[in-house]
TrEMBL record:
Originating organism: Drosophila simulans (Fruit fly)
Phylogenetic lineage: Eukaryota, Metazoa, Ecdysozoa, Arthropoda, Hexapoda
GO cellular component: Rab-protein geranylgeranyltransferase complex
Keyword match Transcription regulation: no
Positions of the Prenyltransferase alpha-alpha toroid domain: 71-194
Keywords associated with the record: Membrane, Metal-binding, Prenyltransferase, Repeat, Transferase, Transmembrane, Transmembrane helix, Zinc
Protein name in UniProt: Geranylgeranyl transferase type II subunit beta
Length: 212
């Protein structure tokens, strides 16, 4: 930890080099994770501890470490939701770009010219839900795509139909189905990727825009 303190620049960046413009969401989240590790187990009753503990295991953590464009979009939208600053976003322009990720198969991709993937059923849907634009995509077609990626013999969801299921895509497949109101699933909070009843019990209220 002495080393990370030494190399951490005053502007909050991750490598000590470059300009302030180089400091993006990924580096910000990197240092948030460093702070989490430094404080792990010290303040278990604090709001910050509870949130970083869950974010470490949720979509925001995976968005900053496993994916690039779509994961970071979700991360940034989630940040504005947590800080109640969604008014700073051009939600119509961003929402339109996100809904254009839906392909004829019903699935969603992460950027133009890419294949659909079940994990984007969370990144894209959660962002659209936070911004009140979930109705801009075809819910029925997307549900059909997600369910086609389910392994009915061994359980779980894969990235695309016919592939091997895994925990990563199972989490986001079920999360996406919950956001779409699929029968039998409890509501999930789009900002924190947690069951909504837990968020309500904790009294946490991330911002979420109404449907226009």
């Amino acid at each position: 930890m002495d080393f990370t303190t030494f190399v951490k620049p005053s502007n909050g960046g991750g490598d000590g080099g470059g300009s302030d413009a180089d400091v993006g969401g990924q580096k910000l989240q990197f240092w948030k994770h460093v702070e989490y590790i430094e404080n792990h187990g010290k303040q278990e009753d604090d709001y910050e501890y509870c949130m970083t503990e869950f974010l470490r295991m949720s979509g925001i953590y995976w968005g900053t470490t496993a994916l690039d464009i779509m994961g970071l979009i979700y991360c940034c939208v989630g940040f504005f939701s947590l800080t109640h600053r969604l008014h700073l976003l051009d939600v119509d322009k961003l929402g339109w770009w996100l809904c254009e990720r839906q392909l004829p198969s019903g699935g969603l991709n992460g950027r133009p010219e890419k294949l659909p993937d079940v994990c984007y059923s969370w990144w894209v849907l959660a962002s659209l839900t936070i911004m009140g634009r979930l109705h801009w995509i075809s819910s029925e077609k997307l549900q059909q795509f997600i369910l086609s990626c389910q392994d009915t013999e061994t359980g779980g969801f894969s990235d695309r139909t016919g592939n091997m299921p895994d925990i990563f895509h199972t989490l986001f497949g079920i999360g996406g189905l919950s956001l779409l109101g699929h029968s039998g699933l409890k509501a999930i909070n789009p900002t924190l990727c947690m069951p909504q009843y837990i968020i309500d019990r904790l009294g946490i209220k991330p911002q979420r825009l109404p449907r226009p």
